[in-house]
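cache lookup: miss for this entity combination. No prior model stored, computing from scratch. Input as submitted by user K.M.:
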Amino acid sequence: MAVSGIVLFGFVVGHMFGNLKLYQGPEAINVYAEHLRTMGEPILPRNALLWVVRAVLLAAVGVHLWSAWTTTRQSWAARGGRYEVWTPVQADYAARTMRWGGVLIALFVAFHIADLTFGTGHPQFAPADVYSNVVRGFQRVPVAAFYMAANVALGFHLYHGLWSLFQSLGWNNPTFNHWRRTFATAFACIVAAGNVSFPISVLMGWVK
Amino acid sequence: MRLTLRVWRQAGPSAPGRLVTYELPDVSEHMSFLEMLDVLNERLTEKGEEPIAFDHDCREGICGTCGFMISGIAHGKMPATTVCQLHMRHFRDGEELVLEPWRSKAFPVLRDLVVDRGAFDRIIQAGGYVAVNTGTAQDANAIPVAKADADVAMDAASCIGCGACVAQCPNGAAQLFTAAKVSQLALLPQGQPERWQRVERMVAQLEREAFGSCTNYGECEAVCPKGVSLDFIAMMNRDWLRNVFRVRRESRATGGAG
Amino acid sequence: MRLDARIPAGPIEGKWERCKFEMKLVNPANKRRFKVLVVGSGLAGASAAASLGELGYEVECFCYQDSPRRAHSISAQGGINAAKNYQNDGDSVFRLFYDTVKGGDFRAREANVYRLAEVSGAIIDQCVAQGVPFAREYGGLLANRSFGGAQVSRTFYARGQTGQQLLLGAYQALERQIALGKVRMFTRTEMLDLVVEDGRARGIVVRDLKTGEIRRHAGHAVVLATGGYGNAFHLSTNAKGCNATAIWRAHKRGAAFANPCYTQIHPTCIPVSGDYQSKLTLMSESLRNDGRIWVPLRKGDTRPAGEIPEAERDYYLERRYPAFGNLVPRDIASRAAKQVCDEGRGVGPTGLGVYLDFSESIGRLGRAAIEERYGNLFEMYERITGEDPYSVPMRIFPAVHYTMGGLWVDYHLMSSVQGLYVLGEANFSDHGANRLGASALMQGLADGYFVIPYTIGDDLAARLGEKVSSDTPAFSEVETGVRDRLRKLTSIRGKRTVDSFHRELGQVMWAECGMGRNATGLRRAIERLPGLRAEFWENVNVLGSGDGLNQSLEKAGRVADFLELGELICRDALHREESCGGHFREEHQTPEGEALRDDEHFRYVAAWEWAGEGREPVLHKEPLEFEYVHLAQRSYK
């Protein structure tokens, strides 16, 4: 869970920063997208490294989902009957929504890949023109809303996930422990804010 | 003050259970929660109804015998307090309270609010000790222990094994209990020779029992009557991981030379 | 009945060594042919079961709690004494021995106490090796504190939870033996009777508290480590489940009961707040280091403590005992509190309480210093009473805490029944008429770790090849008796609850046989208790059946035994026409109100033999010789 989480966390951070090129105009982001395909050339053929990265990510997603599923099943089995009343004392919203938030994010990722990588269901999909795909895509209000909701969920998921990571891997040192929550909050906010800014910018007409 | 209690009644391990409502018109604010139940039980007995079974012993918050859910919180809403030390002055007149046993597959209900926590003993059996036979010890001051280490070991060792951590955890996980013992012994020089084997075996036993897995909710720490810290779980996880990557040495000697 | 204490000959320093050498041994390979039943899993029971398992014996261990880790030893707060002399302050085995005999008001057996002091150091070594997190100094070495009745610092402690940590150490050793298959543990299992055949303990009959099943267990030896009988007083600092059933049943099967009237009343407990009170909570004796004890000078003064001017307060301990002040031993502090309350100067809603005031030390040392020393105790006080002891004085009152009496044992810790051993608080051996603070833990562990593992072999060695079986007429007879009694209890269906009988017994015991005792009151109690017992057996109401978990039934059996034991306590107190330690006979006091011993007539252990239902018990005397400690009147002035 933690190890696949680190891989996926690395990806979402990179993905968000990469996408900030949206604000530098069509050329910058399209060149960046093309660069991703040509990474490793001429030693490796075009797209090769991209597919390696995709394979690693896919594996990480698989491991992440599988561990989530097994721990969830284990936990449900461990509860010997439901409480008539159960009152949380410390578990915050983020902790309590890891499972359903995770499901929402998984659904979103599937939609997102179909929409912006393969163009399935996208009204004006142009394979090489990332900029226009994004802008046209977010001009559909329901899609933008879904995108924003999913990224807020991602923020919460990252917040609890990052903090948990320290616990699960035993990165515990009294001198630095108070930074763990700060780190988790900061990265969760940065990733969520960066990602949510794209549809907002499109809807507000800042990015056309 | 007047209170309404809805109490889980279950005649035996395999009998069905249900919540039964009892009215208590005259609760004194000086009573402890268990004394209130004592009074209720006296009245039930006088009416010919079987009293409510609940576990309790020292009533000083140290033996770890007592414990049940009060309106969804293990040991009730007061922090760092077992039910035997919870006093009625913290409740409002007219309040309705729901009393349920610890619910965990690993802690089967025996009767009413009484559960079987034998799983905890089995986790200790798996390695929660230092293997020194009586009489073999060296002088107690032969190995100095840094005060800070001894103090933190004591924080971990203050666990009373009541099971509130498991009961409150949405996952029904027993990481906090296990980690408290693993960490106490890992912090002390006396625990070093068996350190890796201990964490491996105790975690393996933890997984064999019907507990859930930890997802770091932090509920356990919040309800722990002794305030055992979540940090110990991180310490246990680190030791467990370090053990996985540890260089393992195996002796090839066979038999004794006589 | 013949009482032979089997004290080895020779000088006191060599007695234990000599005893160990003279005892017969069981060869390591033969140990597994012997089965030992250990009842109780507190400090004494758990340490005994673990150590015997390590040696190779087949052990079965029983406790009424759901886990051996819950035994009442866990509640001990203050610490454990040991003659380590780590503080370089002049401590020695002899000094610990001397302090213990003197603290016990010269009513303990010298040889036993010396051995206790002798093995005390090894206990600390053992516990540290087990990972017990004792308090330490910054240099990494063990810290000590001082305790009542001693002028050296020899008490080792783990915050205010020493008993817990020592018990968990023994519990872990026990769990290790369980995992190794050397000890079989029976939790939620209560011993209900002892089986004696041809004068020898053959086994026990138990009830599985979960299923109600009655079972027989046979063994080569039976070890009782079932704790004290303070709950005979209903309200005490003991855990609710603490009971005397195992030792009382053994007594009725032939084990002599020694000095039952030696009960310790602890001076610093939280007072009773109402009829519903279920138990009393002890506040560590260490509080008396910085708290000052006082009551109003005037009778019936109901002003709040803060409004009573200094001149109208009576710091009675400081006034009466200028040398020791608030740090006099437990029995003296308790009696003094009773006296001022009897005079009508007690405080609080019931008038049964005295102030323990920290305002002076808070003023002198600052709140932070007091918080560091006693923070957890202050918190506990506030949790229970709802009052903040930093701003208003604590109210305290004495409560029954420990019983020095118990089954009579010889130097080997064997009772008057062959093959029946008694350890820890359940026996009578080491504390005389008053126990010093931090000595109970020492004795429990000494008995379990370092005495019984040696002495049990001496008796077993002669029994090699002897088969044990629970399929004998004696077992059948005892089992039938147990079943009949349980059936009787659930079939009376009278009008009174078990608790109401327990409460009434407690009121009689506390009023007539509590801190101050006199012949008239004791006779009154001895007359009244048979009637209460008869009413119990006609009018008690135990609902449900014996077929499953039934807490009322468990309680009923225990209270029935307390009703019998209570009478023996009173008889012993009546017969002992002197005051010593925890036993204070109002007829025997100095003009200043101090305990007055009568060494000429009462320098003996009173061992009572059960003579049958409705008969007066028979008194046997084991004379006490004091060769090394000079008999003197204790003075703390």
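stored under new cache key. Residues 33-46 of chain B form the longest helix (14 residues).
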